[in-house]
Specification:
The protein has two helices and four strands; from the N terminus they run E-H-E-E-H-E. By secondary structure, the chain is of the alpha+beta class. A four-stranded antiparallel beta sheet has the order 2-3-1-4. The radius of gyration is 13 Å and the shape is globular.
């Protein structure tokens, strides 16, 4: 079942996010089951929303790819993560 993941990661900067992105290479080596990734920073931390094929696919990405990079960067705080069954996904067509 497809899921929507919402993450709040207090204290993590955009520079740390970019370093994680460089190490994990999720744009070049797309994670299995990842469908959509949105990132913002509210001045205190990251706000990320993803869509995944399943909670298991998301967890595999976290365990196998994201966590090793986060440890290498030295990020100590854990994010708050919420996972919900996806009801609908609509992408606005571009003209």
């Amino acid at each position: 079942m497809a899921i929507m993941m919402i993450m709040k990661w207090e204290g993590v900067s955009l520079d740390q996010y970019e370093e994680a992105k460089r190490l994990v290479r999720w744009e070049e080596d797309r994670p299995i089951g990842g469908k959509l990734h949105l990132t913002a920073h509210d001045g205190t931390g990251l706000r990320i929303t993803d869509v995944w094929d399943s909670a298991e696919a998301f967890q595999a990405f976290v365990d196998d790819r994201l966590t090793p990079a986060i440890m290498q960067i030295g990020i100590q705080q854990a994010p708050d993560v919420e996972v919900y069954p996806l009801h609908d996904l609509y992408l606005v067509p571009q003209d």
